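Form P-L/3: holo structure prediction, ligand adenosine-5'-triphosphate.
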Amino acid sequence: MLFVLLCGLICFVAAPNIDTIVSLAKRRGFVFPSSEVYGGLGSAWDYGPLGVELCNNVKQSWWRWLVYERDDIDGVDSSIILNRLVWKYSGHEATFNDWLIDCRKCKGRFRADKIVDNKCPSCGANDWTEARPFNTMLQTKLGAVADDDPTALAYLRPETAQGIFINFLNVQTTMRRKLPFGIAQVGKSFRNEVTPGNFILRTREFEQMEMEYFVSPSAEHSKLVDYWVEQYLEWFGSLGISRDNLYLYEVPEKELAHYSKRTVDIMYKYFPEREKPWEELMGIAWRTDFDLSTHSKNKLDEEGKRINPDSTEDLSYFDEPTKQRFYPHVIEPAAGVNRTVLAVLMDAYSETKNDKGETRVILKLSPQLAPIKAAILPLAKNKPEIVGMAKAIKRSLQPLLRAVYDDTGGIGKLYARQDEIGTPFCITVDHQSLEDEAVTVRDRDTWEQERIKVTDLAEHLQKRLKPYPIPPPPEPI
Ligand code: ATP
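OUTPUT (holo model):
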C-alpha cells in the first residue's frame, strides 16, 4: 500500500554561507569547536558522533572508488613523522613557505597572497612591512633530548605524498606492478597556517586523500591531468556536489609549485555570498619525475654530481618492453577530506516549509554518505510490544546498514531531527504493525510514505540506498 503525504515541499533554499553550516554542525553533533572548555584553540575542530561517520563515509567512498573499483591502484598508510632528510630532498625545508606581511597600523599578521586590494582585513589600512618567507612545516623533537639539540628536529608531514614516493619501489615490486599504476593514501597532514579560519576549510591539522599515478616519461602528461580532473568531477558528482558549484582553475606558470609543470585546481563555491566565491577543494598536478629522482642515490646533476648523497636507494623503474630504465613521471590528484565534507554539507543543505508554515532543514546527503541510513521510530513508546518490535527491527538491520532507534519525542519532532541530519529513511512502527507485520517507510526528500512488510524491509532499503552510479573509468591514456 502506498501512502503519499502531500506536504509543502515546493521551494528549497540552499546554504547561504558557511556560518549556516557551522551552526547546524554544532547543533546536531557534526563538528564542535576544539578545546572549548578552555576557550577553544583558533582553527581546531573536533568531529562529533555524526561528523566522524560522515568523514569515514567520504574516505570509504574515495578508497572504494580508487583502490577497489579500479585495477591499477594500491593503498598504503605511511608514517606521519618521517626521516628529516625526506623533507630536505623533497624541497620542503627550503621552499614550503608562505609569504608573511604585518600591518604596521594594527600589527595584524597575514599571508601576502590572500590580501585583497592591498587593504588590511582587520583595520583597512594600507601600510605593510616587507613580505618575508615563513616555513609552514610543524616542528617537533624526537627522543629525550636537550632543547637545543638540532639532530632531534623532526616534522609532522605537511602532505601525505612523500610517504608514497619513498615507498614507490616497495609497492611496485611487492605488488608486481607495471606502469601506469597508482598509490593512494589517506591520512592527517599538518601545516602551521599563518591565517587559519573559515571553519574546517583551513586548519593546521587536516586530512588528505592523495594519489600518485606513476606513468612513463613519454606519456601524454597534460592529457592525463585532464583525465583525472574529469574523473574527480564525476566522483564529486557521485557525492551529491553540483557541477554548478565547481570551477576549474588553471594555475598560471608563475604560481606553480617547484615540482609542477601543470596544475589544475578544482575550486568550490564556499562563499556564495561573496564577489569572489571560490576556494580550492583539491588540486591535480603533474609533478614530473622530480620526487622519485630527488630521493634516488643514482640521479646526477648537470655537472655529474649525485643530487642526493644521503639516499641508499635508486627509485628508478625498468621498463621491460622498451628495455629502458627511467624515473616515472607522476600525476597527483590531492584532495582534502575536510574541504570535501564542507562542500558536501553546503550542497546538501536545504530549507523548506512544512504544512504549518514552519521552516525545516533537510540535509539531502547522498545515501552513501549519510551518517545514519535508517531511524526506527515507535509510534507509541509506552506500548512494550511496539517498542520491542522497533528494537528488534533496528537490531536486524544493523549488520547491513547503520540504523538507530529513537523514541525521545513525538513523531513530528523525530522526523524533523532525522531530516536535519540527512537520514534517508525513517521507519515507523505503529499499532497496525503488530497485526500486519509491516512498517511505514518515510523518504527524507519527498516525505512520501510506503507500507513495507518487515520481511522485505532490508532488501527494500538496500536497493534504495545504492550510491549514485559512477561510470566505469575510461581506458588510461
Ligand atoms: P591552499 O592554497 O588553499 O593553501 P594548497 O594549494 O596549499 O591549498 P595542496 O598542497 O594542493 O593545498 O593540498 C591538497 C589539498 O589538501 C587542498 O586542495 C585542500 O583540500 C587540502 N588542504 C591543504 N591545506 C589545508 C588546510 N590548511 N586545511 C584543510 N585542508 C587543507
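COMMENT: The chain has a mean pLDDT of 93.
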